[in-house]
Amino acid sequence: MADYLSDDFLLHSKVARSLYHDHAAALPVIDFHSHIDPQAVADDRVFGNLAELWISADPYKWRAMRMNGIAEHAITGGASSREKFGAWAHTVPYTVGNPLYHWTSLELKRYFGVDAPLSPTTADAIWADCNRQLKEPRLSARGLLKQARVELLCTSDDLLDSLAPHRRMQAEGGTLTMLPSLRADRIIAVDAPGFMAFCSALQAATSIPIDGLDAFKAAVRIRMDVFQEAGCCVADVGLDRPVFELADDARVAGIFNRLMAGGTLDAHEVRQLKTALLLFLGGEYHCRDWTMQLHIGAQRTTSERLQRITGGAGGYACIGTSSDVALVCGVLNQLECQGALPRTILFTLNPSDTDMFASVTGSFTGEGIPGKVQFGPAWWFNDNRDGMVRQLKALGNMGLLGRHIGMTTDSRSLLSYSRHEYYRRILCNLVGEWVESGELPRDQDFLQNFIQDLCYFNARRWLRPDTKPVTQQRMQGNP
User: Which of 219, 195, 184 minimizes the C-alpha distance to 205?
Assistant: First the structure.
């Protein structure tokens, strides 16, 4: 009988244990999509208490606490850090079956050496012990990233962000590379209330009068040049609903002009303008050799009450309806026809779309570019054990699992790098099952290469093919 969170946690065969401990555990982390605060990393922030580090910016925890009936005052409101930590400790025992239960235990054990599960009974001791340790350099922002072996960190940054933290990190050098990634949602959000204010700010930032669509694109390019200079290699847009409705250039320009003049667009015009801007972005990414990420299928319009309280990323979104894959393929095909399809990662929030999006990876390809279109890691509501296994099996069934680029963090918490350990254990266990059942050969070199590619090498080569990994050779054994 295995103990909880033992060294062999989630590893249910001899092969799985060997694959993880000997070949996966010590590999660096390539985090190509996160919401880590770049300023905290540049400043090497030292956190005042565990709640500041662990709870104050984590919508996953907020969501669970709300479901547990915790008052918003003790989640995102004015309650003390100790009260917020207590609310989380009260909630954790009820998260059994949710990955939060495992993540909580992994984060406390890996970074603080805490073996006891968090609960109201253990909360006082864990609070005191962890807060005492937070004074140590290994638990500063950069210390945490070093412990997690993070080699490349791509943050999510708005077009108008200064990127000063990234330039500072690059000037200082070091083993951690922190690059901006463009979050392009506001560029295509032509139906959002804040679009006009965004255009005004863009005009001020670039000194280009935005008097038409060409000027808007020119201003966006100027800001993209700033990202390029800072090393950006990834850009992302959230497509809660895929869009693809072509219109000629003159019509699209007219739609944009009417919008800027204060006019109201109908649904067709919104789709046509969004499509044109999405294709513009894809073409720019291709020219700059950036990777395009499309996050598809979130239902973000849910509780107006929570939106008023917490803003746009408050942990109240849910899984959206199944997506129309024809629209996604329309965008990719149009870019491909123009010779402008960038390397692309497709994420879906709806698990019923898993096989569908995995199959798209074989519909758009590039000579000399293995896995040009990727089905991204299990995302958000899917980054649990069942979701990760489902995603890996779908890739195996529908595409080339051996070319998959692995896991990403998609988190605001610096402790969330335990999710890479979680993914690697689940991956090694799945492959171990296939070996034990005779579905894969017991070929040590083959298995080692396969596991290490999916944990590290594929992502490193695919995202930045112009640079060599820090890890020059296949890693063998524990560090």
Answer: 219
> Quick one: which of 1, 122, 397 has its CA closest to 130?
122
Work out the widest C-alpha separation in the chain, in whole angstroms.
70
* DSSP string for 160-194: T---HHHHHHHHH--S-EEEEEEE-HHHH-TTSTT
Bridge partners, 156 (sequence order): 181
Strand 344-348 and strand 298-299: pairing?
unpaired
Beta bridge partner(s), residue 293: 236, 345
CB 344 within 8 A of CB 374: yes
Element (H, E) at 346: strand 344-348
Token digits for 171? Answer: 């000037």
Instruction: Indicate the pTM of the whole model.
Output: 0.95
Q: List, in order, residues 6 or more apart from 239 with CB less than 8 Å away.
A: 294, 295, 296, 328
Under 8 Å between Cβ of 457 and 8: no
Q: End-to-end CA distance of the chain: give it in Å, rounded.
A: 28
248: helix, coil or strand?
coil
Give the integer Cα–Cα distance in Å for 32 and 28: 13
Domains of the chain from N-terminus onward: 49-139 (1.10.2020.10)
Angle between helices 249-260 and 195-206 (to 10 degrees): 100
Do residues 166 and 38 lie in contact, with contact meaning Cβ atoms separated by under 8 Å? Answer: yes
Taking CA atoms, 243 is separated from 263, 271, 355, 410, in Å, by 21, 6, 20, 24
Using CA atoms of 334, 339, 344, 346 in order, give the dihedral in degrees to the nearest 10: 20
59, 39 Cβ separation under 8 angstroms: no
**Which backbone phi and psi does 175 adopt, to 5 degrees?**
-80, -20
Do 130 and 114 touch, CB atoms closer than 8 A?
yes
- pLDDT confidence of residue 471: 43
Q: Which residues contact 368 (CB under 8 A, 6 or more apart)?
A: none
Of 363, 360, 376, nearest to 325 (Cα)?
360
E strand or H helix at 229: helix 213-229
Q: Which token pair is 66?
A: 């709300």
Burial state string for 283-292 with b = 16 or more CB within 10 A and e = fewer than 16:
bbbbebebbb
Q: What is the mean pLDDT of each run of 10 residues along the chain (479 residues)?
A: 92 98 98 97 98 95 98 96 98 98 98 98 98 97 98 97 97 95 97 96 98 98 98 95 97 98 96 98 97 96 92 90 97 98 97 97 96 96 97 96 96 95 98 98 98 97 64 38
